Amino acid sequence: MTPERLTFEWGEMISALGRFGLSEKEADLYLTLIRRGQATARELTRERRLDRVLGYRLLEGLHDRGVLQITAQRPRLFVPISPGLLFERVLQARRAALAADEQLATGLADQLPRMVSDDRSGPKFQVLTGGAMLYPTLTEMVTRAQTSVDTMITRRALHQSLRFGLQRRIGAFLDSGGRFRLLVEQDPRLQPLLRRLVRSTRSRPLAQIRQSAPQPTRMTIVDGREILLYLVPEVQEQGEEVAIWTDTPEFVRGHLTYFNHAWKRSKPIGPE
Question: For 118-128, what is each residue's pLDDT tens digit?
């Protein structure tokens, strides 16, 4: 499928170039040079009705940052680098910065928990609202799982979890020898996705997927010690997800008993 071709007005292009590090006046000069091919500083400042000193300073700044080149002839002509080169250079710098941030985050995530005091006042209880809080919490739970992850989930929530990349965390957990049980609601729309999940876990006997109808609950229990329980299993498009997290033993045990009961009554997908 061919990507949709976008068209921009002059002002829209100036705004768009702001995402690649150019101010409005810099973007205006760059676009003018793209259109002309090359020009002197005097021609550019006149055409764009810029103060001469300001225009020269902007052009020199763009040259210093490698956005423009200057010919050796006299009078000097400014020439723009290609848009593709400009964009790729900016994107490459962002990728490098993101990779550095990911490495830093990994190191901090490994070290900071060691600084937490062991002096705990007993079980904890938290109310979490919105995907920005819920999915990182769920990711942390799966990351620290040692033996088991038991998940009861709805169709829409399963798709949302996959968009957040939780399958990669589950894959790493399975590689370490953990047991994963996924109990999902019975829905014909889920069959293609479930078949793919079964194929991807075929070599992992400790990964099991079952269906249950109806599916009134949405929760994840890790190692039988902590739980994330959603108060509204299937949130509507404009609604906000709300869940509780706790490591209260009695609360976790009660819901694990409920999960095991529902698991026994459910239908296996693929060999177990």
Answer: 555 566 888 88
